[in-house]
Specification:
Largest sheet: none
Number of strands: 0
Radius of gyration: 21 Å
Number of helices: 10
């Protein structure tokens, strides 16, 4: 099959009989979400530099990739027929949340170190490595599938193989998020008495619960959307990507920026030091990172 003859990328919308998005991306919406995700990325960057917590880069990358995707959609308002912009915004908005999800995994790990290993249904190291491995596999599947689908679209061949890989990747990520939520629920339940007595950890737990809930909501939407295909109902109606992807991710990422885990863990250590002036307090993040380094050496 020969490659399709595409209209000029920035041809005024409506002057070509060609389905890309199925609509003209809303300019105002694109600007608003580009700014929101950009501010979240900037806030997380400042937190990372101030706290010197390198694991916070997961949140920086996640929100930065989301910002890039919405910048692409903003530009696409004037260039709605650009296959490059369409592929770019699709790939970034699908893969971006995986980085934030990885940061949430580390957040719970550090919280377990604060509350005590006994609150976790699995050894913390094993739980963390399982989540990271699954996340890496999901990202690889989504990236590979997106590349194959984009290449097939340009060549005029079937995009189904690439789409199927993306669907497998995002559904696997959704299943991992659901299983993670079960672990989170067990940890919060077992450590409830300690959490209720510790305001910083309360806020970390709240931000983690809200973020996980929002990402599961978004994962369900994206899974159904991709299963329907590139000309399905969900993907060709902009309101759904706004209400079931952008809004949940702003809430998820914004909550983690407002109730920043690293800053709250630092505040928690300060409170412990005040209450136990004669006891050396080992920073929980440092202890967790040292354990990760030891595990890598093995």
């Amino acid at each position: 099959m020969s490659p399709p003859i595409l209209p000029p990328a920035c041809l005024p919308y409506g002057e070509a009989d060609y389905i890309q998005y199925g609509y003209q991306p809303n300019l105002a919406v694109g600007i608003v979400f580009s700014i929101l995700f950009g501010l979240i990325a900037l806030t997380q960057t400042l937190h990372t530099i101030r706290r010197r917590a390198l694991w916070m880069l997961f949140f920086v990358i996640g929100s930065g990739v989301e910002c890039l995707g919405w910048i692409g959609r903003t530009v696409a308002h004037h260039c709605a027929y650009s296959s490059v912009l369409f592929t770019m915004q699709t790939a970034t908005l699908i893969m971006g949340p995986a980085w934030t999800q990885a940061g949430v995994y580390v957040t719970l790990w550090v919280m377990i170190r604060v509350l005590g290993d006994e609150v976790s249904p699995l050894p913390p190291k094993i739980y963390l490595w399982i989540c990271f491995c699954v996340d890496c596999v999901c990202l690889s599947l989504q990236a590979t599938g997106g590349g194959l689908a984009g290449s097939a679209s340009d060549d005029g061949s079937s995009t189904q193989p690439g789409t199927d890989l993306m669907v497998v990747g995002i559904i696997a990520q959704l299943i991992c998020a659901v299983l993670f939520s079960i672990v989170l629920a067990i940890v919060v339940s077992r450590g409830a008495s300690q959490i209720m007595q510790n305001r910083p950890i309360q806020l970390v737990a709240l931000a983690t619960i809200i973020s996980t809930t929002m990402m599961i909501t978004r994962g369900v939407y994206r899974s159904i959307e991709l299963v329907q295909g590139w000309e399905g109902f969900l993907i060709t109606h902009e309101g759904y990507v706004i209400g079931l992807d952008a809004v949940p991710m702003v809430i998820a990422m914004g909550g983690l920026a407002l109730f920043n885990p690293s800053a709250l863990f630092s505040k928690q250590r300060t409170l412990m030091a005040r209450n136990n002036p004669n006891q050396d307090i080992v920073p929980d993040e440092e202890k967790a990172m040292e354990e990760a380094a030891d595990l890598e050496k093995k």
